[in-house]
Amino acid sequence: MKAVRLLEYGGLSALQLLDIGWPAIHEGQVFVEVHAASLNPFDTMIREGVLRETLPLKLPITLGGDIAGIVVDVGPAVSGISVGDKVYGQASVVAGNSGAFAEFASTAASQVAKMPNNIGFNQAAALPLVGVSALQAMTKHFNLKRGQKICIKGGAGGVGAIAVQLAKHIGAHVAATASGDDIDYVAKLGADEVIDYKQYDFTEMLHNYDAFFDTVGGDDFSRAYAILRQDGVAVSMVENPDEAEYLEHGIVALRQSTVVTTHMLDQLAKLVNSGVITVRIGKELPLEQVQEAFRVREGGMVSGKVVLTIK
Ligand SMILES: NC(=O)c1ccc[n+]([C@@H]2O[C@H](COP(=O)([O-])OP(=O)(O)OC[C@H]3O[C@@H](n4cnc5c(N)ncnc54)[C@H](OP(=O)(O)O)[C@@H]3O)[C@@H](O)[C@H]2O)c1
Fold it and tell me: In a designed cystine with 106, which of 23, 102, 242, 279 is the match (CB 3.0 to 4.6 A)?
């Protein structure tokens, strides 16, 4: 089968589409014919070796996390998923799976779920990491409630766009940052205020917020503590907060580690099925053009998810 192999840490040329043997299927895993996979910033970090100290990998590996496809076999000790099911979720080698950017993947049944029934494989593949990240932040870390005020930095990004939709669905007042054409897009997602981050400093404009969700990183994670009320919550997808600093502001701050599980994917699928959440695809390319897919994503050439169409 064809798979995108990371031969060594580095640039785009470190990725090669090669013919390799089918991955083995182990206890608790399902074997998926991958129809589509999507790129995340995490894939770039793996490719570049940024995480090699904390997440040592024995190269070569098959790159990629997010998949959507059809189950063609199930390993021992798997329940709730059958051959023929359309599933979406994660197949990253980092979690002991065979990798997403390939014609077939074996992956833990606990990291996939039946995909939403009102979208195709490309959209389903665009959802797992960004969708579960936003859902985890809103429900677990913020426990966001109707009438509360949340600021979402990076409202047009993969995680941010889902977060805006979820926060509005919950009934919160949403301020989000974006730039250029994305300002309109984020407003259409339902944000009450969209702040052009290239012109304005949101940390000087917002006050008495309950929650701040940082999907971008940078210095203004801690500067944004100032927009929060006493006991407000700041969550970053990127930055590690300094405890002394956030305690001094009388707030709670944390860096989120997203955990993609069947339960979270099921919750997400319900929200997609009921029309609460949509995902924007910026570019679809065949597996053969994986280097171009990374170039487009990393160059910021499109807004929206970049998807590899595989079958
Ligand atoms: N910790 C975890 O478990 C975990 C899980 C998932 C993701 N993440 C991380 O979360 C981050 C977001 O992921 P993603 O998939 O949403 O990425 P993404 O789709 O690339 O979105 C990033 C967004 O940030 C915006 N942005 C860039 N610079 C900005 C600035 N100075 N101010 C405001 N917005 C700015 C971009 O908008 P422009 O187009 O205007 O630049 C873009 O919309 C990544 O760093 C990723 O690695 C972490």
Answer: 23
